[in-house]
Amino acid sequence: MSMAKLMFVQAFLLLMIYSKKSDGQWCIADEQTPDRELQMGLDWACGIGGANCSKIQVGQACFMPNTVKAHASYAFNNYFQKFKRRGGNCYFNGGSITTDLDPSK
Ligand SMILES: *[C@@H]1O[C@H](CO)[C@@H](O)[C@H](O)[C@H]1NC(C)=O
Known about the structure:
Layout: H1 3-21, E1 26-29, H2 35-46, H3 68-83, E2 96-99
Antiparallel strand pairs: 1-2
Helix pairs in contact: 2-3
The chain binds 2-acetamido-2-deoxy-beta-D-glucopyranose.
2-acetamido-2-deoxy-beta-D-glucopyranose (NAG) binds at residues 52, 54-55.
C-alpha cells in the first residue's frame, strides 16, 4: 500500500470514529441568537416539535436559570436527542448549534 493510500485509510478510520463519537452530540441555543428568536424556537420545540419540556416549567428541576437561552437549549436538546435517529436535526432557524460538550456539566 502506498503512503498516500495508507494516509487516506487512516483519515477514513478517524472519520468513522469521530462520527460515531458525535452520537453524543448536544444541541444547544446559539449565544448570538436574540432571545426573541430563541423563544420562537422554544415554543416550536415544546409544541409541534414534540420535545418534552416538563422540566423547564416553573418549579421543575431545570427551570433555573430562568432564561430564554437556558430553556431553549434544554428544549432544543430534548428534541434533538429524541428525534435525531428519525431525521430530526439541530436546526432552529439557525438559532442553535451542536456541541460535543455535555451542557449539563
Ligand atoms: C416528560 O418528562 C417527565 C420528566 O422526565 C416525565 O415524567 C414525563 O412522563 C415525560 N412526558 C412525556 C410525554 O414523555
